[in-house]
Structure formats: structure tokens, C-alpha cells
Design brief:
five-stranded mixed β-sheet; 4 helices; single chain; Aminopeptidase; alpha+beta
């Protein structure tokens, strides 16, 4: 029985390693509030846009910029025609959601792709959804 548990744990570690490897090619362009992916031979970037929101509204008179950004709102995903069908949107989603998790952020999937991705991979990402 312990061997079965070790095998499942090993498989989980392999999946996590593969996901990290896939995400290595995704670039977080924080200045543009988006994640970017370039594939060899593609002339354009695949992108996933987001905005950051505070965990709670700022009290009146609070200094701008002193708020904690705890919510990541995914607004748009674009994959150029030359990159479609190659897993670009999935790589963007996995990298962006891993980043949200690493930074303790909750996510709001306004983008239909991100919403469907989280629904398909509910076991992995449902805990990130903002309530």
C-alpha cells in the first residue's frame, strides 16, 4: 500500500515538473499586465491580459499605491492563427495561474478561455478562484 502512495506521489511530482518546464517559455510582462509566449517561427506573441485589484476596497483618503493586490482578473487571451492548436493558450494559463498561486492571489476569470480552463482542471485550480 505504501508503494502505491509513493507511485502516485512520484507521478504528481513528474506532472508538476512538466508543467514548470512548459511554463519556462512564458514571459510575465508585468509592465503591460500580461503573460506572453513566442513560439519558433511565429511572428506574433500569444498573450494573456490581466488586471490587479485590491483584496478589499481602499478606505476613503487612503494613499494611492498602498493597497495589496490580491485579485488577478484575467480579461483576455489571444493566440495568433499560426500558433493555434499547439497548446499556447494552455501554457499561458498554467504559467499565469502558477504565478497567481505563488503570489497568494485569487483569480477572477473574466476571459472565457481562462474560465473554461479552470473548469476543466478544477482539481488543480478551483482553490484559486476569488469568492
Amino acid at each position: 500500500m505504501g508503494n502505491d502512495h509513493e507511485q502516485k506521489q512520484g507521478q504528481q511530482q513528474e506532472r508538476e515538473h512538466e508543467q514548470r518546464r512548459e511554463c519556462e517559455h512564458v514571459r510575465h510582462n508585468a509592465g503591460a499586465s500580461r503573460y506572453e509566449l513566442a513560439l519558433p517561427g511565429a511572428g506574433e506573441l500569444a498573450i494573456m491580459d490581466y488586471t490587479l485589484e485590491p483584496a478589499r476596497p481602499e478606505p476613503p483618503g487612503a494613499a494611492p499605491g498602498n493597497r495589496e493586490h490580491a485579485r488577478m482578473v484575467f480579461t483576455h487571451t489571444y493566440v495568433p492563427p499560426s500558433m493555434r492548436g499547439k497548446g499556447a493558450a494552455e501554457k499561458l494559463a498554467r504559467a499565469a495561474l502558477a504565478d497567481a498561486r505563488a503570489n497568494g492571489r485569487r483569480v477572477v476569470p473574466e476571459c472565457s478561455y481562462v474560465a473554461k480552463f479552470i473548469e476543466r482542471h478544477r482539481a488543480e485550480y478551483a482553490d484559486l478562484l476569488a469568492r
